[in-house]
Amino acid sequence: MLNVVFKLLKRIGFSDEFDLAYLFGNYSHELKHITDERFSGYVLRFLYYFAFIFKRLIRKSNNKKSSDILFYAGTINQLNSLDMLIDKVTEKGFTTNLCIEPNLIPECDKRGLKYFVVKLSFLDLFNILILNFLRFIYIFQRKKNIYNFSNVVDKFFIAHVYLVYFEHLFRCCNFDFIVTSNDHNASNRCLIDIAKSYQCKTFYLQHASVSEYFPKLYTDYALLDGYHAFKVYEKIIEKSKEKCTTKVFLIGQKKRFNHQIETVNKPIGLALNNLDSITHVSELLTTARNELIPIKIRFHPSQKKSFKNELKSRFSEVSIITFQDTQLESLDDFFYSIRFLIASDTNIHLEASLAGLFCVYIKFNTLSEYYDYYGFVENNICIEAYNLLGANEIYESRIRDCELRLFSLKQYSETYGSKWFGKEAELFTEVMLNIKENNINSRGVFKIKPKESSVCEVYGIYDE
What whole-number percentage of the chain has pLDDT above 90? Predict the structure, then answer.
């Protein structure tokens, strides 16, 4: 019983709670928006923490079993990146398991996916509480380094939950590979750490645009969208001054959307996220109401309810302003239903551009450090406007260097314009088969050419 605790304490010595809950532990001052303001203070945060455990403690028995590949999804966006890949590797003879969080059960059922849910035993609970007790002082001694510590304290204790859970899982089941589409959340990082301790090959699959605030690459393999993402990670690795042993494959954007045909009688799409100011968004929607410009709004899956409710209370009675129900409509449906896209600092610009939509950037947040956060304006993925009328004018005139845009899209998604565009799931499968055979290009289905890098091995597709 206690040998599990001692083993995990040893692992925490190499990668502590502040490294596992990476963004909260290292960039809380720079990323103040990630703090959950709904439950403020130690009492509410610890109540939330125990509710988090209880939700996983009372789950029904799971049908978890050994397999070649274990996929893990903690959010809907992570699941969207993995969904297609699971089917493809299964077709090639790999056995797979999909491990999900309780909140993804309805979505997985709707898609007909086989899965098992993160479930804790009472023995797991005992080990978690022992870890909480033994690490309590260590965590609180470092609270001065964390912005608004009392509102994020649970994030560091949640790392114990996942360390115990994944340790239990790997004791019960054998996996050759694990694939996770996030490298900075505590759950994903705990999975990677435990998998490494069992000599399981680890894969990080990029699921959204990357940031300078992310950790350095540390899985065995990283499957990135394109060279732009790698250059961001290269700077992070150089800054860390640590050796990187990760092998990087550039295999394109994994989420696939149908190519859209623009029509003038569709509304303008407006995509929002938690960085956006309700004041700035309301100004745009007021202009839309006054100028009779139809708008269709899509909230980010993690959008705060208070933001959504406030915006709906102001504009739900305006017939030309509609709100997408993300439970009923996919992102692909949203793209198909709009004329062009307006958004601020969000990865949706890239996804919409790859789907063939015209994109306009309007800054909706008040934080100067988030201007063109992902470089989409700088790299000609989208064009900047300052208000709705300006965005509409830019769309009508189509001011854009098409050749430069094509080059930029290929930098963000390696397969764009190649024979592999739209076949990224197949490309992922071929990479997995190559690695299984211990030869990066053993199958000869496609050629991989090394790209120059001073920090680690990088391979991009060679498309003849």
Answer: 55
Q: What local confidence, expressed as pLDDT, does residue 407 receive?
A: 79
pLDDT for residue 400 is more than 60: no
Q: Beta strand pairing status for 457-462 and 359-361? A: unpaired
Amino acid at 137: I
User: Is the pLDDT reported for residue 336 higher than 70?
Assistant: yes
CA distance 187 to 43: 23
Percent of the chain at pLDDT > 70 equals 91
* Distance in angstroms (rounded) separating the CA atoms of residues 164 and 4: 8
Asked if 397 and 390 count as a contact pair (C-beta separation under 8 A), the reply is no
With residue 434 as reference, give the H or E element that holds it: helix 424-436
* Helix and strand numbers, DSSP H then E, in the chain: 17, 15
For 291, phi then psi, to 5°, come to: -95, 5
Reference 85, options 190, 188, 169, 203; nearest CA is: 203
CA proximity to 21, closest of 142, 103, 125:
142
Average pLDDT (124-144) is: 95
Check whether 443 has a pLDDT greater than 60. no
Q: What is the DSSP letter of 251?
A: -
Please give the domain boundaries of the chain with CATH numbers for all domains.
Answer: 2-208 (no CATH), 268-412 (3.40.50.2000)
Q: Which of 10, 1, 8 is nearest to 122 (CA)?
A: 1
Residues 6+ apart with CB under 8 A from 97: 64, 65, 67, 69, 70, 71, 115, 116, 173, 175
Question: Across residues 238-255, what is the average pLDDT?
Answer: 87
Question: Is the pLDDT confidence value at 195 over 80?
Answer: yes
23-33 CB burial, b ≥16 within 10 A, e <16: bbbbbbeebee
Structure tokens, 399: 């001011």
Closest C-alpha to 20, from 7, 29, 8, 32: 8
**Paired tokens of 429:** 């499968």
CA distances from 338 to 201, 349, 352, 458 (A): 42, 14, 11, 37
Q: How far apart are the first and last CA of the chain?
A: 57
pTM, to two decimals: 0.85
Average pLDDT over residues 63-73: 91
Tokens of 46: 């610890």
Please state, rounded to an integer, the average pLDDT across all residues of the chain: 88
